[in-house]
Amino acid sequence: MEENFYRNDEKTRALALSGRVMRMLNPYREAGDVRRLREALRRGIESGKLTRDRFGFNQVVRSLATCVSLCESISADRNMVAAVLLAPVVRRGAMTEDEVVADWGDDVAKMVRGLVKVASLYSRGTSVESENFRKLLLTFAEDLRVIIIMIVDRLTLMRAINHHPSERLVRDTAIEVSYLYAPLAHRLGLYAVKSELEDMSLKYSNREMYTRIASELNETKVKRDAYIADFIAPIKAKLEAEGLKFEIKGRTKSIYSIWNKMKKQHNTVEDIYDLFAIRIVIDCESEREKPECWLAYSIVTDMYRPNPGRLKDWLSIPKSNGYESLHITVYGPQERWVEVQIRTRRMDAIAEKGLAAHWKYKGIKAENSLDTWMANVRDILEAGAGGPMELMRNFKMDVYSREVFVFTPKGDLYKLPQGATLLDFAFNIHSKLGCQTVGGKVNGKNRKLNYRLASGDTVEILTSPLQQPSRDWLQIVVTSKARSKIRAVLKENENRTAEIGKELLQRRLKNRKIEMEEALMSKAMARMGHKDTIAFFSMVGSGEIEVNDVVDAYTECLNARIKADEGAERVSASEYTLQPPSEEDMVADKGADILVIGDNIKGVNFKLAKCCNPIYGDDVFGFISSEGVIKIHRSDCPNAQHLKQKYAYRLIRVRWSGKGDAEFTATLRVVGRDDIGIVTNITSIINKEKSVSLRGISIDSNDGLFQGILTVGVTDKTALNQLIKKLATVKGVKNVQRNK
How far apart are the C-alpha atoms of 152 and 68, rounded to whole Å? Predict the structure, then answer.
């Protein structure tokens, strides 16, 4: 029977593989292990139940190959190897679970039981692309090591099916690996396994693309390695010269990652921004982390021109998942873009294992409970010699033990936390469905929104297009998804109602020929006992606050201010006692002849209004403030109309005098395409202007559009107008205008 079980050279391969496994397990195996394993496998073969798998592979050979991969990848112990070899025998009925307990103990039996349960999922024909399959897989596994065995088993299988005759089986397996096992491997910190699984899944599902990318990479490997070495060398020398302790390494993205980039960016291999990636990991004390990271950043960007649009500063403001790093894409030699990541060892540890942040950063959807549970796995895998698997025995697969599984009428399975309500279930399916839910049927019986679900319930949701979430719903739901969506809808509704309330209030005030001012409205709100502006306007819009009451409160505040202003001495320009300017008030050099006020009177006490920032050459007017200072405004100042209507008696004629050689502040708004080098071109023009200086710059880039706010020092309006004309000629600039 045994001779018929093996084909061709399968027996020879089985002996070779078993020899490798036993050599790897020498430090861990116990007396009698080899004999008992051989007897179990012989029983399975002789019973005729240990048949070939659905791929046509010999089950013993495949199990031994999986054991070799386990030992090489994660230093598996004897119990894991025993479980891998015994599981097919138990699953086929040639050996009982009680016999496994008697011969190998509860630990091996537990893993065997998990492997048998997981294998049963495949026999049901459940789609591996469904969330159902993944959740049941994790539930059935019971032990973390079972998941690791399944991942490595798929790695072994993927290596074996390269030339398999069934294209359908190969493609289905590749899809399964890409959807399920590669993400799990990444969660567990098995990065080498994950990359190999992803590359092979691409190879089998899109062989033409895989071959094309691999060929292009192979053709340029020597040049690429030399390029990375040349790129790193000057950075390394400069970092060492600055006294930094660091590790720097370069890499090329995996074929699968390159393919993903090509799909997202619609680019060729050569056009991918970060085909080359350099990581600088700095070793320093916690208080020196940010300064040394920014020092490394300045060194890199001094050597290679950066692309400002691709700067990602997660150092100043870390991601919500704890990820901290500086990412910059620079233009290296030979006109190639290279991504450089700068972080400290602590940040690197968090990114790679502590919070599974790198996994989320790559965009794979996470589950908070599973993510938290997996956080320490890599530390366990990297535990000292003596067997990391020893620690893993007590690492229970109980991540879903406090959760319920409920079904839709069509049989789709959904996982929810214990205590979840019918409303949670509706939001879990779809946010829009949740917002319109009015009730439901659980196991055929009508239930209210707050009905708490139990495992095995079949739930049907009832909706109405007129339904809207209310604040009471927050007391019903327990899932964060439902709660956050309800809050978002409530906030959206509140903002919408607030806009209606604000418009209603503005119209009522305009009927009384009153313009609404934010400062006065804040005082009116405070007088009525409210602090939150959005909530206040929302209550006006919904009718909870009578709009006429708000108008009355606003009018009272306005009259109080007018009365206070009129309490100041009413003076005209001819009556006003002009004082010599103080050093603080003068905007030009001492003694400069800048303004002529009234009848050519010079040297008055004046200030330039900050609301419009007038400069030499602007058409201006003066306003006598209650403090005895003349405020100089531009004629097109946003406040000009109000001042002229309300306080005409306090206005004074103003004109510029002198040569206008003092420097004034002006702000410009520049809008254009987010092209490479646009900032450099703009600042270059400003620096070349003799009568202009750059005092500040604020840049924002979004959806391919560039917007910059420039603060400049100019001598007069003519110089400012000339600068605006020159900036408008910069390639990519669409509009340049002076801010009010």
Answer: 10
